[in-house]
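Duplicate of #3305? Posting structure anyway:
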């Protein structure tokens, strides 16, 4: 896995409970898109995005690989952007990462 670029997106209303589906994708060494992980969140509020970005993502992808992420792209979902930007500070989950809107 080449974690230099990760894209985050959430889609609402894809299941019976109408919970958001959060997906993280990246690009591998052959320039192919891969899905790092998917998760159904309990809601589209900030606490859910904060948990997935601060706790789950670090466990699923791994602390060592998280240090190599350079760019995280997302859409304009306010709760996701607020949570994501709070983890882009030094000594946090994504210490050397910049956020870009797609």
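Output from current build:
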């Amino acid at each position: 896995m080449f974690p230099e670029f990760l894209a985050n997106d959430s889609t609402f209303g894809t299941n019976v409970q109408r919970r958001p589906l959060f997906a993280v994708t990246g690009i591998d060494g052959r320039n192919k898109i891969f899905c790092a992980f998917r998760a159904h969140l309990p809601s589209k509020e900030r606490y859910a995005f904060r948990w997935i970005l601060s706790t789950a993502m670090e466990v699923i992808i791994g602390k060592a690989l998280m240090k190599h992420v350079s760019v995280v792209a997302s859409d304009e979902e306010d709760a996701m952007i607020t949570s994501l930007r709070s983890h882009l500070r030094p000594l946090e989950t994504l210490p050397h990462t910049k956020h870009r809107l797609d």
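Confirmed duplicate; merging threads. The longest strand covers residues 33-40. The CA atoms of residues 10 and 77 lie 8 Å apart.
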